[in-house]
Design brief:
- This protein starts with a strand and ends with a helix.
- The chain has helices at about 25-35, 80-95, 115-125, 135, 155-160, 185-195, 210-215, 230, 245-250; strands at about 5, 40, 60, 65-70, 75, 100, 105-110, 145, 165, 175-180, 200-205, 220, 235.
- It contains 9 helices and 13 strands.
- It is an alpha/beta fold.
- The strands form 2 sheets. The chain has an 8-stranded mixed β-sheet, with helices on both faces. The protein has a 5-stranded antiparallel β-sheet with strand order 7-6-8-10-9, with helices on one face.
- The mean pLDDT is about 95.
- The radius of gyration is 18 Å and the shape is globular.
């Protein structure tokens, strides 16, 4: 029996077209709560970038599992090793790369003029972080970095940062996190807190950083707008975010 449902935000809860939660998703959440099923965010976003939504959540997996909390209780915090954060910032400065860092409660970017960064901002509809020179970002406890670079650089960066991983979900940039962090590890911390088993949860996602979640959850649901590489890890592929994919899956699977 499903007792918990985990949801990615961008392309899953929020449409890339409308930037809204659909009416069907709102109805689905109401039905989940009526059945006593708890609902959770499972996102690459930090708390400061999670928008207000017309649905309620019982807890949060943020920054790809690096920082997880229920109410005021932090269940898991696992930052990037400081030396590797600083090594990345030296590399970004040397290679003139745009980068963002996310600390526990803050976020910063080293330039506001990068066209890819501005396209990300427009696609995800968030306010650009405050500007901070790359050198001044060093020494801060960082849970996630956005590395704006093509995939061709990934192997070299991972060789330089052996305790990190790059859960890439966009061709032009990647998240950079502690190697032990994933949405699956974050979900595990939530389930332990509530005394639930992974077989009792369902997860919804559409991006490359959702693969571990889809593999981990008792039922992994890929949105219809997901890449085929993501769909290959799903137990069920639903319709797209713009075609009421969440409601369609929950009703078809007879969870609500």
């Amino acid at each position: 029996m499903i007792k918990a449902a985990f949801f990615d935000i961008d392309g899953t809860l929020l449409s890339f077209t409308t930037h809204q939660v659909s009416p069907g998703t709102i109805r689905a959440f109401q039905a989940l709560h009526q059945r006593g099923i708890k609902t959770f965010i499972s996102s690459g976003r930090p708390k400061v970038l999670i928008p207000d939504m017309p649905v309620a959540f019982d807890g949060y997996v943020t920054m790809n599992g690096g920082y997880c909390f229920v109410g005021d209780k932090v269940l898991l915090r696992n930052p990037i090793p400081q030396a590797e954060t600083d090594s990345w910032l030296d590399y970004a400065q040397r290679e003139d790369l745009c980068t963002m860092i996310f600390t526990e409660h803050e976020m910063f970017v080293n330039t506001h003029s990068n066209p890819v960064a501005n396209a990300i901002r427009n696609q995800l509809e968030f306010t650009m972080p405050p500007l901070m020179p790359t050198e001044q970002m060093k020494g801060r406890e960082t849970y996630q970095i956005i590395a704006i670079m093509p995939a061709e650089r990934d192997a070299a960066v991972l060789q330089m940062l052996p305790h990190c991983r790059l859960p890439r979900w966009h061709s032009q940039f990647s998240d950079l996190v502690n190697a032990h962090n994933s949405k699956a590890s974050g979900i595990e911390s939530i389930l332990q807190h509530f005394g639930m088993k992974k077989e009792e949860c369902i997860g919804f996602g559409d991006g490359g950083n959702d693969i571990e979640m889809l593999d981990y959850c008792g039922i992994g649901v890929a949105m219809g707008n997901a890449d085929d590489s993501v769909k290959a890890h799903a137990d069920y592929v639903t319709t797209s975010v713009d075609e009421e994919g969440i409601l369609h899956a929950l009703t078809t699977l007879r969870i609500i």
